[in-house]
Design a protein that fits this description.
With 415 residues, the protein is mainly α. The protein has a domain at 358-414. 66% of the residues lie in helices and 0% in strands. InterPro entries: DUF4487.
C-alpha cells in the first residue's frame, strides 16, 4: 500500500480510506489523541514511503489546528522548511519519475495543510510566484511526458497554495503569473495537452482571488486582457462541475473586484448563456440571471458564527439537560425504560397493513391458475402412455409451487 505514489492521489485508494479514518478518530477523539497520532506518524519516520502516508493524512484533512501549541509550531516550521528546500532544489533536480514518493511532496503537503492551518510565507512571497513561473516554463519546454505530468501536478497544487494565501495576490510578481497562465492555457493550445484540464479546478479558485488584484478596465493592460481570456475559457466549460466552479469563482471575483466593466470577463458563448432545452441559443441575459441568483443565494446564506455569550448559554443549557437526565436515571431507572417502551408501543400501527390492489389481484390469478393445473394433472394421470419420470418431476415442482402460493395467499389475507 505504501510502495506506489498512485494511492496517494486517488481518494478511493486503500491508503486514502485508511487516512480518512485516522483523521476522523484524531478530530473527534480525546484531545491528547491528535498529538499522539502526529508524533507516532509524522515524527517517527521521514522515508519516502512514510511521506506517502503524511500526504494522504494531510489531503484527508488531518486536524493540524487541534495540535498543542508546541506541536503546531513544529508542524508549521517543518512544512515551510521542506517546501522551501524543495523550491531551491527544483532547478537542480529534474522533475522525473520517483520510485515511491510522489514528486513534489512538500508542495502537496503545504497545499493540503493550508485548509486547516494558517501558515505565513510573507518573508519570501516572491519565491512561490517565481517557482510557479518556473513550473510553467518547464512544462512548456519539456518534451518528456513524465516531466510534463509532474509539472501539471505541481501547477495545480501551487495554484491551490496561492488561492489560500490572499496576500500573495498583491505581490509584484502576480502579473507575470497571470500572463504565464494565459500563455499556457490559451496562447499555445497546440502545444498544450488534454491533461491540463486537471489543473482547472484549482485554476478556478485562483481566478476568484483576482478580485484582490488591481485590474484596469482598458484594452492596453496585458494583465487585464489575460484575466479576461482566462475567465472566458473557464466560463465556456460545459461540464456541470466546471460550470459550478467557474460561476462560483466569477461570483466571488465580481463581489470583490474594483473593475467596473465586468462584461469584459464574460464570453458571448458562456455555458450558462445557452438555453437548457437545446443548448444552441446563447443569451447574455440568461447568464446574468444565473449570476444574480448565485450572488443572492450567497447573500441569503452568510456564514453564521455564534457569539461567546451564545456559546456560554448553549453550554449551560446542555449541562442542565444532562444533569436532569442523570438525576432521573439515578432515582428511577425502570421508569425511563418503561417510558421508552410505551413510546415504542405507541408507534406500532393499530390497523392491518393493506397490500396494493395489484398484489391481491395477482394472488387471485395464481390461485385460479393452480386450480386449472390441478384439473390438468387429473387428466394427465389417466394417460398411461406418458413418461413416469417426467410425471414425477412435474409433481415435485408442482408441490413446491403449491406451497409458495399458499404462503402468498395467507400473507394477502393477513393484510
Amino acid at each position: 500500500m505504501l510502495t506506489s505514489r498512485e494511492p496517494v492521489l486517488f481518494p478511493e485508494s486503500a491508503l486514502r480510506k485508511t487516512a480518512r479514518l485516522i483523521c476522523v478518530l484524531a478530530t473527534y477523539g480525546p484531545e491528547f489523541m491528535v498529538d499522539r497520532v502526529y508524533s507516532s506518524i509524522f515524527e517517527s519516520s521521514r522515508s519516502q514511503d512514510a511521506s506517502n502516508v503524511h500526504i494522504a493524512l494531510l489531503m484527508e484533512g488531518f486536524p493540524l489546528n487541534l495540535l498543542s501549541e508546541n506541536k503546531r509550531s513544529i508542524a508549521k516550521q517543518r512544512l515551510v522548511t521542506e517546501y522551501y528546500n524543495f523550491l531551491e532544489r527544483f532547478e537542480d533536480k529534474s522533475p522525473g519519475e520517483s520510485d515511491s514518493a510522489i514528486y513534489g511532496a512538500p508542495v502537496f503537503a503545504l497545499c493540503a495543510a493550508l485548509r486547516s492551518l494558517q501558515v505565513s510565507l510573507s518573508d519570501t512571497d516572491m519565491k512561490t510566484l517565481k517557482f510557479l513561473n518556473a513550473v510553467i516554463h518547464k512544462h512548456e519546454t519539456s518534451s518528456d511526458d513524465v516531466t510534463k505530468d509532474n509539472c501539471r501536478r505541481l501547477l495545480g497544487e501551487l495554484l491551490g497554495i496561492i488561492c489560500n494565501m490572499k496576500h500573495l495576490y498583491s505581490c509584484d510578481g502576480m502579473e507575470e503569473v497571470i500572463l504565464g497562465l494565459q500563455k499556457l492555457f490559451i496562447s499555445r493550445p497546440a502545444l498544450s495537452d488534454s491533461q491540463l484540464f486537471l489543473c482547472k479546478p484549482n485554476l478556478a479558485y485562483f481566478m476568484s482571488g483576482l478580485g484582490h488584484v488591481e485590474l484596469a478596465d482598458s484594452d492596453d493592460s496585458p494583465k487585464s486582457s489575460a484575466a479576461w481570456e482566462l475567465y472566458h475559457m473557464l466560463l465556456r466549460e460545459r461540464h456541470w462541475a466546471f460550470v459550478h466552479l467557474a460561476i462560483s469563482a466569477f461570483g466571488y471575483f465580481a463581489a470583490h473586484t474594483s473593475c467596473n466593466q465586468l462584461w469584459r470577463f464574460v464570453p458571448h458563448d458562456a455555458a450558462l448563456s445557452f438555453d437548457l432545452q437545446w443548448g444552441k441559443e446563447a443569451d447574455e441575459e440568461r447568464f446574468m440571471s444565473e449570476l444574480k441568483a448565485l450572488l443572492e443565494k450567497e447573500m441569503a446564506c452568510p456564514a453564521m458564527q455564534a457569539t461567546p455569550d451564545q456559546l456560554a448559554m448553549l453550554v449551560k443549557e446542555g449541562q442542565l439537560l444532562n444533569a436532569s437526565v442523570q438525576n432521573n436515571v439515578k432515582h428511577d431507572p425502570e421508569s425511563i425504560v418503561s417510558d421508552m417502551m410505551d413510546v415504542d408501543d405507541e408507534k406500532q400501527p393499530n390497523k392491518k397493513r393493506k397490500f396494493p390492489d395489484g398484489i391481491c389481484k395477482g394472488v387471485e390469478l395464481l390461485q385460479s391458475g393452480l386450480r386449472i393445473m390441478v384439473d390438468g394433472l387429473a387428466q394427465w394421470q389417466q394417460n398411461p402412455l406418458d413418461s413416469t419420470e417426467v410425471h414425477e418431476k412435474f409433481l415435485t415442482h408442482f408441490s413446491r409451487l403449491e406451497d409458495v402460493i399458499s404462503h402468498l395467499v395467507s400473507l394477502a389475507d393477513s393484510g
